[in-house]
Design goal:
This protein is mainly α. It is 67% helix and 0% strand. The relative contact order is 0.09.
């Protein structure tokens, strides 16, 4: 797990390699995910600092925002607004990262964005949204999502599955 000064050192080095602001990464998404398996206050603080800074590419911001949606609920609206705006990017890699990050979002608007993404004609984004919806279905089955939110997840998945032009890989993920 990368914590504290090691994380900052990595960001400082990565920030100097001249990455494209959208399609490149300075952070490894697996490392970010691992850091948020059981985040402590210092982990959240370091990623929040990175979020507020200028070293993250848009692709990194999408990954970090998805994790901070859960770990930093006081700024949920900020992270969600970024993801909501970035899903329509012309960069399909960024759109896919956003769709993946929306697995941690909650509410009807987030689900509607995932439905639109899963039924879009953009294969990479549709696949990522399908995976995000499948993840949400697993959370419902495991009891992590309950009540009206669980009903919304199942309703939105049903809506996706009703699309006749749904890509087969999305259909296989969530409609079987």
């Amino acid at each position: 797990m990368m914590k504290g000064s090691a994380f900052l050192a990595m960001l400082m080095v990565a920030g100097t390699i001249g990455c494209s602001p959208t399609s490149s990464r300075t952070l490894d998404p697996v490392t970010v995910s691992d850091d948020f398996m059981n985040p402590d206050a210092s982990t959240v603080a370091e990623y929040r600092k990175a979020w507020d800074g200028t070293t993250l590419t848009e692709l990194d911001r999408a990954t970090v925002a998805g994790e901070l949606l859960q770990a930093d609920p006081s700024r949920y609206a900020t992270y969600f607004a970024f993801l909501k705006g970035a899903i329509g990017s012309s960069d399909e890699s960024l759109g896919a990262a956003v769709a993946n990050s929306l697995r941690n979002a909650h509410g009807e608007e987030a689900l509607d964005i995932l439905v639109d993404a899963a039924t879009s004609g953009r294969p990479q984004i549709a696949r990522a949204a399908g995976h995000a919806l499948a993840y949400k279905r697993q959370e419902v089955a495991g009891g992590s999502i309950v009540g009206s939110e669980a009903d919304l997840v199942e309703d939105r998945i049903q809506r996706v599955c009703e699309h006749t032009s749904l890509p087969s890989y999305v259909r296989e993920l969530i409609c079987s």
